[in-house]
Amino acid sequence: MAAVIETQGLTRRYGRQTAVDALSFQVQEGDVFGFLGPNGAGKTTTLLMLLGLTEPSAGTARVLGFDPVRDPLPIKRLVGYLPENVGFYDDLTARENLGYVARLNRLAPDASRGNIETALDRVGLSDVGDKLVGQFSRGMRQRLGLAELLIKDPKLVFLDEPTLGLDPDGIHKILELILSLSRDRGITVVLSSHLLDQVQRTCNRIGIMVQGRMVATGLLSELTRAGESLEQLYMRHFQQR
Amino acid sequence: MATIFRKELSDHFASTRFLITFALVLMVAVVTTSMVGAHLREALEGMAKPSHVFLMLFTTSGQFFSLVQFIAFFGPLIGIILGFDAINRERNDNTLSKLVSQPIFRDAVINGKFLAGIVTVTLMLASLLLLITGLGLLTVGVVPGWEEAGRLAVYLLVSIAYVSFWMGLAILFSILFRSLATSALAAVALWIFFAFFIGFAADLVAHALAPVANARDAEQMVANQRVADAASLASPVVLYSQATSTILDPFRRTRQNLVMVGPMEKFSMDRFRNPLPLGQSILVVVPYLSLMIGLILACFGASYLTFLRQEIRST
Ligand SMILES: Nc1ncnc2c1ncn2[C@@H]1O[C@H](COP(=O)(O)OP(=O)(O)OP(=O)(O)O)[C@@H](O)[C@H]1O
Ligand SMILES: [Mg+2]
Fold it and tell me: Which chain B residue is nearest to residue A49, measuring alpha carbons?
């Protein structure tokens, strides 16, 4: 197994505040990595640095063997990113939105048409594909965001709180989808979430981040060996601060 | 880049605000042209046709203003409308963070938006000019000669550069300011300043640099006026007006204001007025045009640099 993500002393400062502080961690191929931490811990900032959307103040990172600072393009080709709040062009339909992303990814027209239909089907939006996205509910937008990741056939996906604002059934479906991505297609998943039971159900490896530092990382099975639940583990690290 | 360009272009043409702007501009053009046209036809009745009648269609003011003046004042508004929300709307809608996480160079976003804007401006102004020409043919019944057509083509080019500059400025503001209202207001404020207050500002500069101690001292007055003229060229609106009046009004010899000219001189100038040939006019216009293109490039460069270094985070 190879490391898909590897960081060394990755740091990001905003003025005098250090949002991400000398972060060193690894994610292996095929992992479903749960990225935990309280609000403002620096999870989103870390993901942005891994994608080359923000420059680190210090330290290095490798994603799928590429350096996000110098070589972001191949990373963006292979990585699907679902931001905290997905945005769409509200005056276009779901299919048109996906079509635009497909063209930006330089997919061939027929391949992209096929991918779009499969992706819409996977997230259960086939019958509203021609509706304007402006009329979508939050959960539908979230699912469309996932469909958008699927059409580019990624090796690695970053999901920043993908279940935010979804109904219990929606959460269940999305987690199922994430698990099937990892199981059937061997896609590595990095999942940032505040819902510990979801993480426990889906992830095999976790990292807990508090105030910019990674306070615990490793296989979930090893970290919780002493019969501790994930929640107890999390609270213990959180309160030590 | 081509993908973004195509999307932006179709966005422009499908947008309601484009339709409204275009309808407004067309309306003004039609009304002004027919007014000026009727007026010209009357004036020309039974007269030997002076040269360059056709161009007078553009430079003569009807009831309110000439077409050239209209574009000089409201062209900036068209540019601002096309550009003020180019980047910040996408930022606020969180589509920007999606866009830059696709495998495209970040500058493709800027390039695509600038190019789509310039093409939209070009199509808008070109169709406007064609429409006016057509209407002019109908109302005045004069066919423009080759030279006049050439002058109109240069005028079109200068106007495209002018409106594109304002669009570029608006795009720059849309990168610098997150709020749509702020970027629109900033651009409009600059427009109002350059269009209406540049005269005062130029006078202030002139009085600071070349003060007139004695109002009867002609030399001092001329020096002062020179500085004021030069300072007012800092305004793209003035720059554009100077350039277009040179190209569309061949009887204009210099860009100097005629305030300083005494009545006798004016009389002799009027008597021996000869049109400046097209080639000469173009030579006079080229520096203005290059200045305007320089301004566009400056907006583009500044947009480029700020945008490439900006962090884009969905909120
Ligand atoms: N542009 C910015 N300027 C200054 N500080 C910033 C900026 N962006 C983020 N921060 C700070 O960086 C820290 C980390 O933010 P980040 O968004 O990475 O947290 P997070 O772990 O994703 O939190 P959440 O769980 O709420 O999404 C926060 O304290 C935030 O205030
Ligand atoms: Mg976050």
Answer: B311
